Amino acid sequence: MKSLRLIFVIVAVFLVACATTGPGGKKSLIIIPTSQEVAIGLGVVEELKQTEKVLVDTVWQNYLNEVGQKIVKVCDRQDIEYHFTVIESEQVNAFALPGGFVYFYTGLLREMENEAEMAMVLSHEISHIVARHGVKRLQAAMGVSMAYELVFGGEEAGKALDLAINLGLTLIFSEYSRDNEREADFYGMHYLVKAGYDPHKGLGMFEKLAAMGGSEPNDVFEKLSSSHPATQERIQNTKTQITQMGMLPSNLRVGTDKYTEMLRRLPPKATSSAK
Ligand SMILES: [Zn+2]
């Protein structure tokens, strides 16, 4: 029975792998199908509602969504819907969940100076979803046999989904591999320019993070400053990439005025350092 199961898994891996493309049309090995990926994402969203405070300001939520959707439109993954949410918290962070859910903390919004910087963070997060980095991490953590239950809806399917949601929650703030980060940076920059944003200004985001990195290494954008490629390396890679893009359109958006106006709308910083 075990070996039969293994054969099924191997066959499934090949079937799904053939159908799964990531950024730049790259093929990769994904066992968990998109429908289950979205179900896991939604499960994690429900859990987050218990602990995270969604910013009550439709103007801000619409703004983040509007910028996010501009990037979605040019990205390499169109089989899911993308959702963008501002969380009221002074944590300097943003993250993506499997299935198309992106969260942005007010703590990080406050550090950004223009729309291009915010868009750069969004396109980095969208790239993690396009490349299915979260799903890959999840299926590695679940193990093949539980991932199999999700694929084939066996007796343990409900249990497998619960396990995936719980793992999804614990994995939010754990680190992606350096390669995953480099890939998200690369495609993020590519999508940013395609969506019409000025990459030189977007780069300012990394520079701010580099400046912050020393003080609170565990509290900066996906733990960016700990074991991830050093921020300086990311800045250098991104600069090289911009150079390689050659002549860029002259009318790329920065959005400083609009962003400054939006910053004024944010509620005052919470004095107690909540979360
Ligand atoms: Zn990342």
What does this molecule look like?
The protein has 275 residues and is mainly α. The chain has one domain. It is 60% helix and 5% strand. It contains 13 helices and three strands. The chain has a three-stranded mixed beta sheet with strand order 1-3-2. Strand 2 and strand 3 form a beta hairpin. Helix 2 crosses helix 8 and helix 11 runs antiparallel to helix 12. About 3% of the residues have low confidence. The chain binds zinc ion. The site of zinc ion has 6 residues, from helix 5 and helix 9.
Query: Looking across the biggest beta sheet, what order are the strands in?
Result: 1-3-2
Q: How would you describe the shape?
A: globular
Please give the share of residues in helix.
Answer: 55-70%
Q: What is the count of β-strands? A: 3
The ligands found in this model are:
zinc ion
How many helices? 13
Biggest sheet details: 3 strands, mixed
Order of helices and strands: HHHEEEHHHHHHHHHH
Q: Indicate the radius of gyration in whole angstroms.
A: 19 Å
N/C terminus separation:
47 Å
Structural class: mainly alpha
Beta-strand portion reads: 5-15%
Mean pLDDT: 85
Count the domains: 1
